[in-house]
Amino acid sequence: MKIYLVGGAVRDRLLGLKVKDRDWVVVGATPEQMLDAGFKQVGKDFPVFLHPDSGEEYALARTERKSGKGYTGFEFYASPEVTLEEDLCRRDLTINAIAEDSEGTLIDPYGGRQDLQLRILRHVSPAFSEDPLRVLRVARFAARFADQGFHIAPETLELMRELSAGDELSHLTAERVWQEFERALATRSPLTFIEVLNAVGACDQLLAELCGLDTTDAAQRAAALSAAHCTAEQQFALLMTIATQAETDTDALERIDAMCRRIKAPNRYRDLALQLRRWHLALSHFESLDSGHQLQLIKQLDLLRRPERLTQLGPCVQALHPELEIVAPLLEPLLQQLHTLSPRQLMTEGFSGKALGEELERRQLAICAGLSTPD
After folding, report:
1. How far apart are CA 317 and CA 297, in angstroms?
2. How far apart are CA 262 and CA 239, in angstroms?
3. What is the pLDDT along the chain (375 residues), one digit of tens a residue?
4. What radius of gyration, in Å, describes the C-alpha atoms of the chain?
5. In angstroms, rounded to a whole number, what is the distance separating the alpha carbons of residues 253 and 264?
6. Are residues 294 and 286 in contact, defined by beta-carbon separation less than 8 angstroms?
7. What is the DSSP-derived secondary structure letter of residue 286?
8. What is the largest CA-CA distance in the chain?
9. Are 27 and 9 in contact (CB under 8 A)?
10. Are the C-beta atoms of residues 108 and 98 closer than 8 Å to each other?
11. CA torsion angle for 289, 293, 296, 300 (degrees, to 10)?
């Protein structure tokens, strides 16, 4: 039995990046041997085991054969006779097909180290074109490593185009498409993900709402968010607002909601995208609004109860309207003042029922008017 560190952990260490997760391949072992050693089996279609102490994944070396459509249409064969080279051959990219033994020696049968130096994303074997998920994975790696100058090898792009031209992409589930898209949104160059899908003819099948993006303009705005260390949710909201900027508010909101439902985006992504699309113009001109509209906007966004929304929306608004003042410093003092108003205090002053609500709003408007009136 021999154990090798494989995949992203080896790749990222060679790139000088922080290693987050470690995956291992075990050559020359049976499931029974792994169980006897205290590992816990978690895979049914192919043997994957959890280390009893670290909880890291250890997979028996395996080969695979295409047996159906989509990314699940494979038969796996795991046996002590399967070699490390055979296991590495089934991986997507050469940079992900490097292994390291217990002494730190690298095993690199497919030229992954050279492609790391050349900054090339290249497929390992023709079997690449059997798995439609790899179109998304390569696009995501292109986004992740765009700031390091990586590009996709022409022959790999051609295989991605062939995959996109067939019917394989239609077998990808919404959950898998979203998973790759979400990971791309967390990179420093999420627009690269869309650009690659467009380049290989996959975007209109998977994320049609984003195919018409002006990627040059969007990339500048997305880069501003990345520089501010913003979240994947904020990047998604920004892209959806840019993608629907030529539409009416009603049509844009319906389109965003429909897309989120189709690709099964979590509610927090959908809600932020809808809020930004609906309110970014008003927020960008907040200081010029009269006190009534200021208060109305604060209530519509529920900022008194959920001030974190301003933290989420503020950088997105700034990315969309870089020529204007940053909205958060204008709104935060106002929200603090509004929070000092207490219905309980007004009740001690004798207000109740309808009169209580009217007096609360009157004082809220007075605070807003004080902010918007020049000194």
Report:
1. 14
2. 17
3. 899 999 999 999 999 999 988 999 999 999 999 999 999 999 766 789 999 999 999 999 988 775 555 555 557 678 899 999 999 999 999 999 999 999 999 999 999 999 999 999 999 999 898 899 999 999 999 999 999 999 999 999 999 999 999 999 999 999 999 999 999 999 988 999 999 999 999 999 999 999 888 777 788 888 877 777 889 999 999 999 999 999 999 999 999 999 999 999 999 999 999 999 999 999 999 988 999 999 999 999 999 999 999 999 999 999 999 888 777 788 989 999 999 998 999 999 999 999 999 999 999 999 999 855 443
4. 26
5. 16
6. yes
7. G
8. 86
9. no
10. yes
11. -60
Give residue 314's identity as a one-letter amino acid code: G
Q: How many CA atoms lie within 13 A of 292 on its CB side?
A: 0
How far from each other are the two terminal CA atoms of the chain, in whole angstroms?
A: 78
Q: Which domains does the chain have, with CATH numbers?
A: 1-118 (3.30.460.10), 120-212 (1.10.110.30)
DSSP string of 120-170, one letter each residue: EE-BSSGGGGG-THHHHHHHHHHHHTGGGT-EE-HHHHHHHHHHHHSSGGG
Q: Tokens 């497929």 sit at which residue?
A: 123
Closest CA relative to residue 338, chosen from 314, 302, 375, 288: 302
3-state class (DSSP) for residue 6: strand
Contact 24, 3 (CB under 8 A): yes
Residue reference for tokens 């049509």 = 251
